[in-house]
Amino acid sequence: EDDADEEAVVSTQSTGDEVYIQAIQQLGSVMEHTIKQNNAVDIYEEYFDDMAEDGSVEPPSAKTINVFRDPNDYKRSAANISWYPDNAQKLAVAYSILEFQRSPPGMCMDSYIWDVESPNKPDMTLKPISPLVCIEYNPKDPHCLVGGQYNGQLAFWDTRKGSQPIEVSAISNSHSDPLYKCIFLTSKTGTECFTTSTDGQVLWWDIRKMAEPTETLILDLAKGDKPTLGGISLEYESTMPTKFMVGTEQGIVLSCNRKAKTPADRIVANFSGHYGPVYALQRNPFFPKNFLTVGDWTARIWSEDLRESSIMWTKFHRSYLTDGCWSPARPAVFFTSRMDGCLDVWDYMFKQNDPTLSLQVCDEALNCLRIQDSGSLLACGSHSGNVTLLELSQSLSQQQRNEKASVTQIFERETKREKILESRYREMKLKERAKSQQEERPAEEEGEDPEELVSEADKNFWFTVEQEKIGIEKKEKAAEQ
């Protein structure tokens, strides 16, 4: 009986094994087919992951996030703005009154660092010995910043060490006019910067030792020892470390080379096109050969290859322009601020004759503007010290498809057009000169030498005088008889 049971169990097991084997064989072929399919096609692939979001369909816009107001009773102008280098968490604002003799006695000279999420109270107070006209964070060290003062001195702060400046340049070796612009240079130490002022000098500094400047450049087109042009704005591109540009209060932009063989050769070229001070000067971040200038009633785009004229320009506005800058995210977009409180956003991919977006930020003059490195946050400073923080829409802050190639074509086309017009103008001038010379030649061929004509006229004059004398003498003799 036991043997019969064991045989039955073994028989059942063997039958089960056969069924199991058959099932595995059937499933194995199905699984093999599925695995081959998975190896051939990635079922988890994101087909549109590499495609950038197209914000071009979204209408351009900007919304106000915060407004930072000068906490003092006597309101001062927001003269300059600098963003915190590491992120969009903070911004430094320089406050001063630039109108001559308008500053009241005992006026507060403080400037402030603001937290973008806390507009009610400054994050930190900077206490210069003279009001700040410009301010700039050190891009290599976010704790360090420098400020250009109204009395021409350069001050250096380390925010970890309090509100007082760590060091200030000696007044005898500083600018003699307000220090309008300061830019940090690309260097191994990260402590070098250069400044300009309407006193006609560009000075280089090392903030570790500010007793005197390391170098000096006199702004004079005649290459003399006395300045003839006053500096208002500066431009420096880290990819071209020896080159820099200076915008002057006479409306001329100077292209310079710091490492020229002689001091007289430092000013390489000049570009004339504005009727007043060049308040803003910046190379296009994507096309360094092209640069933007803002002054009088227009903004102009230039090419280094063409010195006679700008290649593109805005229409003449009714209100004076005060500042401008390129978008760091989009090569076709730049911004300008106006005296009537309006901010203009220009997008040359959309249209070129009018701004793509005009915002009435306030009812007073906008003095300055500064965009954050991401290209989505823009700060504008007004005449009464209000700094408005704006967030730009994606269509203005994200690069569009083929935008870089399109802007390249626009700049090349406009540069070529201006070169053709310039050569045509020179050709017409040569023709006019040749025509005037041909008109002068017949007179010379007839022997009518100008000197001979003068001599002949002189003889005729004195002959007439002698004849008159003889006539008078005859009349007198006749009267005596």
Top keywords for this entry?
alpha+beta, 481 residues, 4 helices, 33% strand, 28 strands
Total strands: the figure is 28
Assign the structural class, choosing from mainly alpha, mainly beta, alpha/beta, alpha+beta, or little secondary structure: alpha+beta
Uncertain regions: pLDDT < 50 for 5+ in a row? none
| Strands in their spatial order, largest beta sheet | 1-28-27-26
Query: What is the molecular shape?
Result: elongated
What is the rounded distance between the termini? 198 Å
Radius of gyration: 37 Å
How confident is the prediction overall: mean pLDDT?
A: 88
| Relative helix content | 10-25%
Beta-strand fraction estimate: 25-35%
| Tally of DSSP helical segments | 4
Largest sheet descriptor: 4 strands, antiparallel
What does this protein structure show overall?
- The protein has 481 residues and is α+β, with helices and mostly antiparallel strands.
- It is 24% helix and 33% strand.
- The protein is built from four helices and 28 strands.
- The chain has helices spanning 2-40, 394-397, 403-445, 450-480, and strands at residues 62-68, 77-83, 90-96, 111-115, 124-126, 132-138, 141-149, 154-158, 167-168, 179-184, 192-197, 201-206, 215-218, 231-236, 243-248, 252-257, 267-272, 278-283, 290-295, 298-303, 312-313, 321-326, 333-338, 342-347, 357-360, 366-371, 377-382, 387-392.
- Strands 1-28-27-26 form a four-stranded antiparallel β-sheet. The chain has a four-stranded antiparallel β-sheet with strand order 2-3-4-5, with no helix packed on it. The protein has a four-stranded antiparallel β-sheet with strand order 6-7-8-9, with no helix packed on it.
- β15 (243-248) and β16 (252-257) form a beta hairpin.
- It starts with a helix and ends with a helix.
- The model has no long low-confidence stretch (mean pLDDT 88).
